[in-house]
Write a structure and sequence with these properties.
The chain is of the alpha/beta class and 178 residues long. It is 34% helix and 32% strand. Strands 1, 2, 3, 4, 5, 6 and 7 form a seven-stranded mixed β-sheet that branches. Helix 2 runs parallel beside helix 4. It starts with a helix and ends with a helix.
């Protein structure tokens, strides 16, 4: 009985924190027709600034895996990783392509005696052929926390990274699904 009574304020606090959590923000700069066939949509590796070295890479890999696993719901033939950095790609070729680029930044850990709060921000851009500006921009902040006696930093980072990859992929897939 006492445990249930103590758990109620904790659950209320979690609900309040969840309500205050930042949510994804999507901006469209034009119309993207999801009914169009796209043989290839290139995916540029994310620029990861001020994040742990082992954090950005797995998010990008999961993002591309999700896109390819769910591509049949779109009219995209395949999602292909662009191996070169954008500055090394010929601008005349790039302007003719469909591609997605993105950034991950603002990773913060705040540790106390018993738990750690974590935050990270990300933004992706979807470009269409013939356009210098993105057709779609999605900002996705993700927050998480873990109790030190119930999990590890590596496991919490992995969960948060997976959540971020899923939210980014969902945003792109929603825009490309007829």
């Amino acid at each position: 009985m006492k445990a249930r009574f103590l758990a109620a304020p904790f659950l209320l606090l979690l609900l309040l924190l969840a309500g205050c959590a930042a949510s994804p923000k999507t901006r469209s700069y034009g119309f993207l027709d999801p009914r169009l066939e796209r043989e290839v949509l290139y995916v540029v590796p994310f620029d990861a600034t001020l994040v742990p070295p082992d954090f950005g890479g797995p998010i990008f890999d999961q993002f591309v895996d999700i896109l390819n696993a769910r591509r049949k719901q779109t009219r995209v033939g395949r999602f292909v990783i662009l191996k070169e950095e954008l500055k090394e790609v010929e601008p005349v070729w790039l302007i003719k392509q469909n591609y997605v680029s993105g950034d991950i930044w603002g990773y913060v850990e705040s540790s106390g005696c018993c738990s750690t709060d974590m935050k990270v921000k990300s933004r992706i851009y979807l470009y269409e052929p013939g356009k210098n500006m993105p057709t779609l921009e999605v900002f996705v902040p993700v927050e998480g926390f873990f109790e030190h006696d119930r999990s590890t930093l590596a496991a919490a980072r992995s969960r948060m990274g997976k959540k971020l990859a899923e939210e980014l992929a969902d945003a792109v897939l929603r825009k490309l699904t007829p």
